[in-house]
Amino acid sequence: MIQKISPLPSVDALLRTPETSVLLTRFGRPAVTAAFRDILSARRAAGTFGGQPADVIGQAADHLAVRFTRSQRPVFNMTGTVLHTNLGRSPMPPEAAEAAAEAMRNATTLEYDLETGQRGERDTHISRLLCDLTGAEAATVVNNNAAAVMLVLNTLAPGKEVPVSRGELIEIGGAFRVPDIMSRSGAILKEVGTTNRTHARDYKDAIGPATGALMRVHQANYAIVGFTAMVPAATLSGIAHDAGIPLIDDLGSGSLVDLERWGLPHEPTPRESLEAGADVVTFSGDKLLGGPQAGLIVGRGNVIAALNRNPLKRALRLDKGRLAALEVVLRLYLDPDRLAERVPALRLLTRPESDIRTTAERIRGALAARWPDRTVTVEPCRSQIGSGALPVDLLVSSAVTIEGKGLENITKFLRSLPRPVIGRVARGQIILDCRCLESGDEEAFIAQLSGTGDTG
Questions:
Q1: N or C: which end of the chain has fewer CB within 10 A?
Q2: Considering the entire predicted model, what is its pTM?
């Protein structure tokens, strides 16, 4: 006797079921219809017939839930790198994030002058603040620091040679190189000195009729040690000005304040660079500054005016959301005594090791309960600042480590959590550095570990 196999339900029949109404409300009719069609087509191709409509609806629900989950999601950064490029660099102050959201929701005074009732300039929201904080005559802002460098070079030295020390021809993440951006800007790179030693005479000998500017690039993501020499900014600015050309100083990550006040190593500030004679200084907004992605440019008034006249500036400008966030962050710097508690990046960098260890001890138990057959311990470790800031200086920290079999399955499970946990694997251990897990996040971190799933 031949057993009769029930046919697959039709798309129309599936759409009329009460169970589907929930999916229609949540995801919309086009997406649900497409999901049913894809599932039914796959079943026909595999020769899988029969089954109940509920099976198809359940499969569609799973498919749609994955499809409509946001790709960019919050994570717990337990890598030990505070300003992690792949994880979004600086966490912003809550009030800055709120200002960005408010600006994005509403019409704003982005380019409108309330006093005159006429069109205004978007840079005015941050330019005066930057001048006050750096001592610059004028300031402007673009999309990121690479854009800032490109705009400056394209404005001051198109088709002209720009001498740069060989020891400063850096490559940052994603194989992005200073020589490449100089080439794209229209400037001509002229290498001077050697990798480890560059002298004032090297710059003087390189200057000629074809020279458009001198440029100094901060060694932000590496350090050359040993038999070394470099030309101080004050000396370099004197050489440039004697030749009648500007000095460009790219600080990379950049810090508006001296980090030594919190026990961190010194990082050059824009104010120091300008006081040393630089004509224009570029630095990032989303690294040590602790704000949104931006390329900040400060310097002489005539230089900034020339940058703003360059048509390239419009292509590189910031949107209203990031400008709103940046304005809030810059205002926090007007009160430097409270910066470490109000700017998350600085708060995490200056967090006491005893506080970090307390956090590690609190979450160790939850991790040990989840993996009772593994060795879960609290160990001292070293965090790094990251994103090209103070590359050789490490911070004392504490981590929860997991040893045993199936570490790959555990890291996969941690990444699959509602708020993924991103750590690192080294020396046969999963290392979860607790520097960036603040006390307010501990409860949420522990709660999601109790979920079900294959953890190896």
A1: N
A2: 0.90
